Amino acid sequence: MQRLSKRLQAVADLLTAPISEEYAKETACGNAPADLGKAPCGEPVYDCVADVGTDHGYLPIYLTERGLCKKAIAMDINEGPLGRARAHILESDLEAYIETRRSDGLLALEKGEAQAVVIAGMGGNTMKEILRGGAGILEPDTVLVLQPQSELRDFRAYLAGQGFRFLAEDMVFEDGKYYPMMKVRKSCPDGRAEAPAGEFTETELRYGPLLLGQRHPVLREFLLWQREQKERILENLRRAEGSYGAGPSQQMVSGGGNEVQETAFQDLDSRQEEAARRRGLRMAQLQEELGYICEALRQYEDVNGQ
């Protein structure tokens, strides 16, 4: 049986987790959709899952081996990863259940062919382009599990702006890195359009509305680490700012007369002013980021009293 990394295991668990009763009540959409039948252990079973950027094909193998999907499509833009995926699929005797396709994002997928799509391990901007390019391929009830590696704030804003509803979020720590991920969809289980996604606060966009709502412990670890890192950088910048207050060194220019020396000092002053301007901007940015981090941490303090 295929084993997954901690990150991919979390992606698989998020994909196969049933829609919670709380979510169904909140959105007035009823129970989980009929095409997400339950396996004995409670996970939904999809007719077809598409894995975009499949790399080694481990996720489709894991899902089909465990009966969590009847069929999978392993997709990648490069032939090298597809070749590795094919080899692993053959080793697992799953070639009758997993198809490989060379595809630029979602473009090799037929409309409505997959009930669920996984896009994991890419930058947020790359994922946005994939979703834009495949907008006509995804059905309103297609479940998406997305694990962006960067540009998280803007990616969440894009999803909300496109009307995607956040069904669930998770976050794991593996090999020195934090990996947030989200499960989204546009429609209700019965096919009706959901209420508008609503506006998220800036803090929710930065750190995840559901991660904050459930006071996710890994998110708290991430916030504490980020606070420590940014406070250290801010302190170093403040020290650097103070060290430049003495003015330029009289020893930087030797000889050449007063006119050459004056020009050199003017150039130095100009460079120091530009450096000071950049430090000021960076310090303001760090202070703003620390403000959002502290606001997010207050949600944990309200419960833990810490």
Secondary structure layout plus pairing:
Blueprint: H1 6-16, H2 21-27, E1 37-38, E2 44-52, H3 58-65, E3 69-76, H4 79-91, E4 98-102, E5 116-122, H5 124-133, E6 143-148, H6 152-161, E7 165-174, E8 177-185, H7 202-207, H8 209-213, H9 217-243, H10 257-304
Parallel strand pairs: 2-3, 2-5, 3-4, 5-6
Antiparallel strand pairs: 1-2, 6-8, 7-8
Helix pairs in contact: 5-6, 9-10
Helix content: 40-55%
Question: How far from one another are the termini?
Answer: 43 Å
CATH C-level label of the largest domain: Alpha Beta
Q: Poorly predicted ranges (pLDDT <50, ≥5 residues)?
A: 21-38, 190-197, 249-253
The tally of structural domains comes to 2
CATH architecture descriptor text of the largest domain = 3-Layer(aba) Sandwich
Overall number of strands = 8
CATH superfamily of the largest domain: Vaccinia Virus protein VP39
Overall spatial form: elongated
Quick one: biggest sheet? 8 strands, mixed
**Rg on CA atoms, Å:** 25 Å
CATH topology name of the largest domain, in short, is Rossmann fold
Enumerate how many helices there are, as a single number.
10
Report the portion of residues in β strands. 15-25%
Describe the overall structure.
Strands 1, 2, 3, 4, 5, 6, 7 and 8 form an eight-stranded mixed sheet that branches. With 306 residues, the protein is an alpha/beta fold. 47% of the residues lie in helices and 18% in strands.
